[in-house]
Amino acid sequence: MTLLLLAALAQEDDLEAKFTRSLGKVAAAVAEASAPSVVAIEVDRDPRSDGDGFNPNQGAAPDYYRRPEGLVSGAIVGADGWILTSYFNVSGEIRGIKVRQDSKTWPAKLVGYDKPKDIALLKIEAEGLPVLRTAVMEEIKTGRTVFVMGRSPDASRATITDGIVSAVHRFKESAIQVDAEMNFGSTGGPCLDAQGRLVGIAAHINPKSSWGQSGGVGFVTRIDAIEGVLEKLKKGEKIEKAKTPWIGILGADSEDPEGVRVQEVLSGSPAEAAKLEADDVIVEVDGKKVATLAELQQTVQGRKVDQDVTLTIVRKGKEQKVKVTLGENPNE
């Protein structure tokens, strides 16, 4: 019996080793083929503008959440000089942008952006640039292997990390979630499938995001969502982000009493200002019953930032009213 068990474990180890070797070969092939379409972006900005600070809910050192001053990444999507990157990379007080790759440097212009999707379109004066093929998004399903590439901190060398697709519908259907490591340097770079085809742009990493960086939770704005606005961006359109109202709790459905049980009150949130407490159960918003977390979210999103709402809560068995002034969700 022991020998059979050892043999089975040895076989599992062998399969894992074969998988690791196979993944390494695929990653190397994808990196070699795709690197010419990955660029470094140098942004001359006031480092304190739009990005300095940290999320107090994380308990990590503030420097971990500050936008670094180094290179960020982008992907060539037009042979005549069109570059996609994350909007966050080029937000703030910008004095100039340069696109770099190996020994080449081009001045770049920010042409358009879409804040909700966290993408921006740059233009450089160049011709004959290598463009990545586009993935078939119907093939990108949960569990598929993907790769995130960048060119930071060294513009002469592309970087690559691997992971799987964790979810395919995030940020109102415009993004997928992946567990490939992403950071402030690789954000804006391309996410690729195992054939080196463009799945989307690494995005939604900023100092206010609760998931931070390199934590196994990353988001990629889908290429099909980008294609839907690309022509508008080429014409200079700047799509602003609508403010999303927010209470600032982590919650779960409650059956007794029926409603939403507060699991955690986030630091600096409207809920904290209103003195909500963990284990409170929210049962009504402005007199309308809410039976689930989804119903609460839908009700709140139907309101406006800075609007006052009255929550009916049950605290230690007693019902009471609490007024909350809705804030702006920092993660959307």
From TrEMBL:
<comment type="similarity">
    <text>Belongs to the peptidase S1C family.</text>
</comment>
<keyword id="KW-0378">Hydrolase</keyword>
<dbReference type="InterPro" id="IPR001478">
    <property type="entry name" value="PDZ"/>
</dbReference>
<dbReference type="InterPro" id="IPR001940">
    <property type="entry name" value="Peptidase_S1C"/>
</dbReference>
<dbReference type="GO" id="GO:0004252">
    <property type="term" value="F:serine-type endopeptidase activity"/>
</dbReference>
<dbReference type="GO" id="GO:0006508">
    <property type="term" value="P:proteolysis"/>
</dbReference>
<dbReference type="Pfam" id="PF13180">
    <property type="entry name" value="PDZ_2"/>
</dbReference>
<dbReference type="InterPro" id="IPR009003">
    <property type="entry name" value="Peptidase_S1_PA"/>
</dbReference>
<dbReference type="InterPro" id="IPR036034">
    <property type="entry name" value="PDZ_sf"/>
</dbReference>
<dbReference type="Pfam" id="PF13365">
    <property type="entry name" value="Trypsin_2"/>
</dbReference>
<keyword id="KW-0645">Protease</keyword>
<protein>
    <recommendedName>
        <fullName>PDZ domain-containing protein</fullName>
    </recommendedName>
</protein>
<dbReference type="InterPro" id="IPR043504">
    <property type="entry name" value="Peptidase_S1_PA_chymotrypsin"/>
</dbReference>
<feature type="domain" description="PDZ">
    <location>
        <begin position="227"/>
        <end position="317"/>
    </location>
</feature>
